[in-house]
Amino acid sequence: MTLDLERNPRRGDLLEVEIEGVDTDGCGLGSLDVRVGPQRAPRRLRVEVRGGLPGDRLRVDVGSCKQGVVVGRIDALLTPSPQRITPRCVHLTEEVHPCGGCALQALGYEDQLALKHGLVTRALSRAQIDPASIPPVLPSPRPWAYRNKMEFSFGRDGAGRLALGLHPVGRRWDILRQRACHLVSDPAVIVSQAVQDAAEALALPPFRPQDGSGWLRTLTWREGLRTGERLVELTTSHEAPTPDPLGTAQALLQAALDAADAAGAPLTSAVWTQHRAVRGERTTLISQVLHGPGVYHEVLHLPGGHALRFEVHPRAFFQPNPLGAEVLYREVLQATGLLEAPASRVLDLYCGTGTIGLCMAPFAAEIVGVELQPDAVEGANRNARANAITHAEFIAGDVGATLEGPLGARVRGADVAVLDPPRSGLHPKALQHIHAIQPRRLVYVSCNPEALGRDLVELRRLGYHPAAIQPVDMFPQTAHVETVVTLTPPAP
Ligand SMILES: C[S@@+](CC[C@H](N)C(=O)[O-])C[C@H]1O[C@@H](n2cnc3c(N)ncnc32)[C@H](O)[C@@H]1O
């Protein structure tokens, strides 16, 4: 049906639209055929609505319309998708401005997996990948409470009360007073509520990003799902509103320790970090461990009875869903072929803290990792030492530039190169240098099907053949999906 409009849609207009799909950020997508203005010029508008699900008929409150893209929010659910279920979280069912964390909670888990399969097949169709060759998405072992980390922010809720929680969708200055979050274990929320109450009792001001005033910034919960170790980090600004900032931070973290004890989930570490930002100087983070060792540990189980132990520092990256990471790494190991035939040299490109490289360690004589962030490389080398792995080397640098240098010659003809690039995918230069070292097998681990589709087109052009594809769900309730692709190289 084509809609006649006097002018292009504007903020505050109401439009009716059917949602046809969801993008890789979890935003519902629809389209509207319109004829605009006195000339009735025909146009197709793309409509993006957060919370919209395929099959919904919605009345959309338009926020903006630019270059043929209408972005809006749900004003009314006129006809709900037959797949809709009641979300579990009160912050989706009871808030005027719902939590922005879980775009797909109104779908059952099986339907979420089917939707993610559709996202992957659609994105890879541009690389001529037959949808029938893509198996179903492997589920996360836990669809709920799978996250080992949650960063709650201090701020004010819509009514101006001190709040410690997550942001409502589209309202970057507001914070929810968190009553639940089903992506982490319950004690995470119990602890955050206790700290929120203690901060409110002391009338402490939350940090205001708008003008840099206030003191309380974030409370981060981190947990080893296999070790039961738990760490809480309180981050404040450096300029304290109290004469005794250490005593005040101790009081807040004591509230966290007491609440965790009462919930039967004692904290093993509590850390206070001051964020020091002075104009003209580099921002620094000054941490003080106020309880326990100031780190937590996690264990990942690997095929063949192997296991790796990781020491995680308060701000170090670690895979947010460790049980899901075990599934992903099992698939990566299978894709490398290392489980059948150990290799002499393997590469872990875009290695982060080295988890993939270290997973390959029992099956290869030498592992070389490359990663841009020096902190992550330090973590990777520390993780290698902690696991008595002496045949892994992690190097700080840009993948393309590093392979263009002496390392490229050294690792030429490596048995396997695993690539786990950021969401933007492979830089053309990096791809060129990866191709130049002539790996005998490529394994591409992608967190963005769109970027993967683009890169597979390029890889095909260079002669790499996608031999196997396996999507894996690491982030239930969201639209994110990982994909592992095995590529065989061009014949020499
Ligand atoms: C998806 S993460 C990989 C995570 C890693 N496999 C792990 O388990 O820790 C992508 C990584 O690529 C790194 N990165 C981004 N651009 C890069 C570049 N040009 N060269 C090297 N590493 C880069 C990022 O810092 C990030 O750690």
Describe this structure in words.
The protein has 492 residues and is α/β, with parallel strands linked by helices. It folds into 3 domains: 2-84, Nucleic acid-binding proteins (OB fold (Dihydrolipoamide Acetyltransferase, E2P), Beta Barrel), CATH 2.40.50.140; 121-141 and 321-488, Vaccinia Virus protein VP39 (Rossmann fold, 3-Layer(aba) Sandwich); 149-297, OB fold (Dihydrolipoamide Acetyltransferase, E2P) (Beta Barrel). It has helices at 90-93, 109-125, 186-201, 245-262, 322-336, 355-360, 374-386, 399-404, 406-410, 428-436, 449-461; strands at residues 2-5, 14-22, 27-36, 41-50, 57-66, 69-79, 149-156, 162-165, 216-223, 230-237, 269-276, 284-291, 296-301, 307-312, 343-349, 364-371, 392-396, 416-419, 442-446, 465-472, 482-488. The chain has a 7-stranded mixed sheet with strand order 17-16-15-18-19-21-20, sandwiched between helices. α2 runs parallel beside α11 (449-461) and α3 (186-201) runs antiparallel to α4. The longest helix has 18 residues, at 245-262. The chain binds S-adenosylmethionine. Residues 317, 319, 350-353, 355-356, 370-373, 376, 398-399, 420-422, 447 line the site of S-adenosylmethionine.
Q: What's the CATH C level of the largest domain? A: Alpha Beta
- Could you tell me the mean pLDDT? 95
Q: How far from one another are the termini?
A: 55 Å
Structural class: alpha/beta
Tell me the count of domains. Answer: 3
- Please provide the count of β strands: 21
Can you tell me the CATH topology of the largest domain?
Answer: Rossmann fold
- Evaluate the radius of gyration: 24 Å
Portion of residues in beta strands equals 25-35%
- By DSSP (H or I, 4+ residues per run), the number of helices equals 11
Helical residue percent?
10-25%
CATH architecture of the largest domain: 3-Layer(aba) Sandwich
The bound ligands are:
S-adenosylmethionine
Biggest sheet details: 7 strands, mixed
Ranges where pLDDT stays below 50 over 5 or more residues in a row are: none
Instruction: Give, in spatial order, the strands making up the sheet with the most strands.
Output: 17-16-15-18-19-21-20
Envelope shape: globular
The CATH homologous superfamily of the largest domain is called Vaccinia Virus protein VP39
